[in-house]
Amino acid sequence: MALCSAFCPRISTNFRPKPFSSFPSKPLLSLSFKVFSSQATDASSQDKFSGRVGFLGLGIMGSPMAQNLIKAGCDVIVWNRTKSKCDPLISLGAKYSSSPEEVAANCDVTFAMLADPESAIDVACGKNGAVSGMGPGKGYVDVSTVDVATSKLINEHIKARGALFLEAPVSGSKKPAEDGQLIFLTAGDRSLYELVSPLLDILGKSRFYLGEVGNGAAMKLVVNMIMGSMMASFSEGILLSKKVGLDPSVLVEVVSQGAISAPMYSLKGPSMVKSQYPTAFPLKHQQKDLRLALGLAESVSQSTPIAAAANELYKVAKSYGLSDEDFSAVIEALKAKSQDTA
Q1: Domain co-membership, 267 together with 208
Q2: CA 20 to 30 Å from 295, out of 18, 152, 158, 257?
């Protein structure tokens, strides 16, 4: 329990942003915002953190993330709509508060990992929401996957209380969350990003600072749009290989060793061949992210026909009762379609 307490001095009532001189004065890339890719190599990661940390939302991602903070020695207060999900963390040393407002009021920094935009807004801004417990010297880090408008709305409510806001959606599913190997796509108050970098380094393997609020949400939706489309195409390939008399297990090996190799294929493929879908990233969340990504594309008049087709497939899979299965179960929707046309 010494690691986090040794991580940094106690937070004062006001955040003390680090000078920006440790970063290049010019953009690293010719984009409309600066991108900082960092692990434990930039100056901010050398800072230390020993303040109290709140964690709201203890689902398939939030629970292992909060657990890693506790194991690192952090002083953590947790909340979840279903209190029983807090019990394993309480047994590890976490404290419990009965509302998001109480968590935020008693913590220096509060993390939130919620399932969708509606939940993120309700937990932050609803009755007894975290916003009511925020104030100067506090920070709110939303690691949920939401749309740009939702992130900006929560930011406005947090800033109105004199607190700081950072959106930090994560790339990675259950296993990376358990192993502390997530990728954080952050945007918002730079001083808060620097302050919580040591915590992000406990939870993840890399972090990107993307500038103003909305850029983190947009990046996450683009990433998950690509992932959902890849899984749909991979599913088609598995079924086609089997239909023409090939061994789909061999297909998985071939794909995993070629130019189109991706960890997702070698990780999910063997189970998919066996029609097994242990949930690491629920299918309903993948479909939600595709829906939000299509909305993002529509807002800038960008055509996304492949993602749109994939989204329809995930919607069919949901209609077959596969919402809580892993998103790789989308292959079952293709199987059903094949049977319908046989």
Answers
A1: no
A2: 158
Q: How many angstroms separate the Cα of 290 from the Cα of each of 121, 201, 223, 283, 307?
A: 19, 28, 10, 11, 7
Environment class of residue 128 by beta-carbon count within 10 Å: exposed (0-12), middle (13-18) or buried (19+)? Answer: middle
- In Å, how far are 3, 54, 182, 331, 340 from 337, measured between CA atoms? 53, 45, 35, 10, 5
Examine the fold and report which residue of 192, 212, 232 is the final residue of a domain before the chain moves on: 212
| Final residue belonging to a domain, choices 212, 237, 264 | 212
* DSSP-assigned beta bridge partners for residue 319: none
Q: What is the pTM of this model?
A: 0.85
Give me 32's structure tokens. Answer: 């409309």
DSSP string across 275-317: T----SSBHHHHHHHHHHHHHHHHHTT---HHHHHHHHHHHHH
Using DSSP, how many helices (H) and how many strands (E) does the chain show? 13, 10
151, 154, 169, 227, 292 from 146: Cα distances, Å: 7, 11, 8, 16, 8
Helix, strand, or coil (residue 174)? helix
Task: Identify any residues that bridge with 79 across adjacent strands, giving them in sequence order.
Answer: 56
* Catalytic sites, residue numbers: 220
- What 3-state class would DSSP assign to 247? coil
- The answer to whether position 230 is within a domain reads yes
Domain range for residue 282? 219-341
Mapped onto helix, strand or coil, the DSSP state of residue 267 is helix
pLDDT tens by residue, the chain, 342 residues: 444 544 343 333 343 333 333 333 333 333 334 444 544 335 444 567 889 999 999 999 999 999 999 999 999 999 999 999 999 999 999 999 999 999 999 999 999 999 999 999 999 999 999 999 999 999 999 999 999 999 999 999 999 999 999 999 999 999 999 999 999 999 999 999 999 999 999 999 999 999 999 999 999 999 999 999 999 999 999 999 999 999 999 999 999 999 999 999 999 999 999 999 999 999 999 999 999 999 999 999 999 999 999 999 999 999 999 999 999 999 999 998 777 665
